[in-house]
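Appendix B, record 7
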Amino acid sequence: MREAIGDRLRTFGGAEGERIDLGAEFEKLTRSAEVYLLGPIRMLDAAKAAWAATGRPFSLLRFETFAASGSRPTVPFEIRLPHLNRTIPVPASKSMLEALEEAGIEMISDCRKGECGLCALKILGVDGEVDHRDVFFSDEEKASNAKLCTCVSRVYGSAIAAETADR
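Structure tokens (predicted):
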């Protein structure tokens, strides 16, 4: 990458105690500049807040999250499907989507092909906290806890009750 970008490429390593001042960096850009970010959820949340503070159009901020990143630790939990009278364990090493598919629950998804949002399920209740790790739902939609993307989102707690398309 350095060959293509040259001296303009800057990296910051958290393990080395380095932190980027996102607000200061955004202010250096032209008003029409696009920014592309990849990183953990907490960094992306900070970037969104700093970007909003500059008054720039949100459409110019592009980002992706690391697959396993979330605001809470990855712990095992259960997904309860009351309409099917099933409870499926979700180990820390698997996504909800994987656990449901392995349990024979038919899921609609195209996550692995870049189609986001198809695996979302309606949340009926949660014993714990939903850790929305997707970039599909808006912050307002995440705060409502009405739905979650099973491919990446998790529960920090013991269980979630949800409704699948299979009734």
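Remarks on this record: The CA atoms of residues 83 and 122 lie 12 Å apart. The mean pLDDT is 86.
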